[in-house]
Amino acid sequence: MSRVENLVNTYWDRYVELSNLAVLLHIWSWTTPRCGMAGIFNVSRGNLADGRIPDDGTLQAVLDELEAAGLVFYRERVLWNRQRVAELNNRTEQIGKSIARDLREVEGTELHAAFIREYTAGKIGEWLGPLLPTLTTDPHHRPSDSADLASNGEVPTLTGDPTSQGQGPSQGQRHGQGEAAEDVEVSVDVGGEERHPRARPTRSGRRIE
Questions:
Q1: With 96 labelled, which of 104, 106, 121, 192 sits at a CA distance of 20 to 30 A?
Q2: To the nearest whole number, what is the mean pLDDT of the chain?
Q3: Helix 20-31 and helix 58-68, axial crossing angle in degrees, nearest 10
Q4: Which residues does residue 73 pair with via DSSP β-bridges, in sequence order?
Q5: Pairing mode, if any, of strands 200-201 and 207-208?
Q6: CA–CA dist 100, 193 (Å, integer)
Q7: Alpha-carbon separation of residue 49 from 7, 13, 65, 127, 170 (angstroms)
Q8: Which whole number is the average pLDDT over 141-146?
Q9: Beta-carbon neighbour count of residue 200 at 10 Å?
Q10: Max alpha carbon distance in the chain (Å)?
């Protein structure tokens, strides 16, 4: 089903210090038909960026780069575009239900737990929490914590605050180079026929494409 995504031109301020392939993967993670309202979805390593980034060490370097920037995380064949929910234009009950459906597809994974910790607190939590009652009762939920994204069990401090209003300071602002650019929405049509193989179920019942 065709969908239009709204991106803002201040993303290019964020991209100043990223490689071209990291920019490609970040834009893909947002605009691929695989990405729903939650910004978290199952995808095999070979289908990241629709296979446009060679998996000869290059892909891992790109994933590491995006994780260090606090933008995209990839664990257990699950990808999470961390800013997706924070930058939704609307916060409606229907969108909340759509997010809940997306989360059920990745339930029990490390990034599922990270999403819960990040987005059931603060202003977004006031909207999303009541729509996700099963999430707010998670025994590991600690609203004051940053998301637990480390495979070794450590709790790192993530860059930026995706639950704040807007997008936070731009690269220029962080480095004392003046004000951020004006937000201008650019519509990107992410519809059309997908060119990747049919999804297949995993042992846990999740579908991996």
A1: 192
A2: 73
A3: 70
A4: 80
A5: antiparallel
A6: 25
A7: 18, 22, 15, 31, 25
A8: 36
A9: 9
A10: 51
Sign of CA dihedral 108, 73, 144, 157: positive
* Cα–Cα distance list, 45 to 53, 92, 95, 109 (Å): 10, 32, 28, 16
The residue with tokens 């994204």 is 149
Q: Enter the tokens of residue 17.
A: 């210090």
- For the segment 6-27, what is each residue's pLDDT rounded down to a tens digit? 777 888 888 999 999 999 999 9
CB 86, CB 163: distance < 8 Å: yes
Using alpha carbons only, what angle is made at residue 156 by residues 154 and 158, rounded to the nearest 5 degrees? 155
Q: How far is CA 126 from the centre of its chain?
A: 20
| Tokens 């914590």 sit on residue | 145
CA distance 59 to 57: 6
- Cβ contacts of 127 within 8 Å, gap of 6 or more: 91, 96
Residue 120 has pLDDT above 60, yes or no: yes
Pair of tokens at residue 199: 């999804």
pTM of the entire predicted model: 0.67
Distance CA 209, CA 201 (A): 9
Measured in residues, the chain has a length of 209
Assess whether pLDDT exceeds 80 at residue 73. yes
